[in-house]
Design goal:
Layout (H helix, E strand, L loop, with lengths): L1 H7 L4 H17 L7 H14 L4 H15 L2 H14 L4 H12 L10 H16 L5 E3 L1 H9 L8 E3 L3 H7 L5 H10 L1
């Protein structure tokens, strides 16, 4: 349908936007099948080329960056452009919220909410009697930055080694120390 609209009027930016969103939806709903990404990218950027001031075009490009490339900085830039020209644009607000709520990059305040929400949930579970073990330098850093570092059972900067230890695997460094003591 969108291709038909584009065939009738190639400069119909909204049809390019809708095509891009549909292809991004197919990408996500079909197990992140990368075959849909080139078409989504082409349609989003064509919409932006045809109508550079159209907020919907910036949302489509931002969604492509967010879901297709995991480039959160570029995605946020596009969503900000859309919101600047149309402050109450619900799609721009929604995709900005998705981008800002994802976990990781807690050092940047725009991305901290998701990581800190997980840290809070772990601390609350610990207070309710759960045993909580945090493994990995960045995870411990995020926990401490959230102010909840003292509210877990155990925190290790060992990362992957901590997980292997919990799984019962032999750690080469511990094995070497054990062999020398025997």
């Amino acid at each position: 349908m969108f291709n038909n609209a584009i065939a009738l009027e190639e400069s119909y930016a909204e049809a390019h936007v809708s095509l891009s969103h549909m292809l991004m939806h197919l990408y996500w709903s079909h197990g992140r099948n990368r075959e849909f990404l080139p078409g989504a990218r082409k349609a989003a950027f064509r919409a932006l080329e045809v109508a550079p001031d159209l907020p919907e075009a910036h949302v489509a490009v931002g969604r492509y960056y967010y879901q297709g490339c995991y480039d959160y900085e570029k995605a946020l830039d596009e969503f900000a452009i859309a919101r600047k020209s149309y402050p109450n644009h619900i799609s721009a607000i929604r995709w900005t919220a998705y981008c800002q709520k994802r976990m990781g990059m807690f050092e940047d305040a725009r991305f901290a909410a998701g990581t800190f929400a997980v840290a809070k949930a772990v601390a609350e579970a610990t207070r309710s009697g759960a045993t909580s073990i945090i493994g990995g330098g960045d995870s411990v850093k995020a926990l401490n930055k959230s102010g909840l570092g003292e509210q877990v059972t155990f925190a290790s900067t060992g990362g992957g080694a901590s997980l292997e230890f919990l799984e019962g695997q032999e750690l080469p460094g511990v094995a070497a120390l054990t062999d020398k003591q025997a």
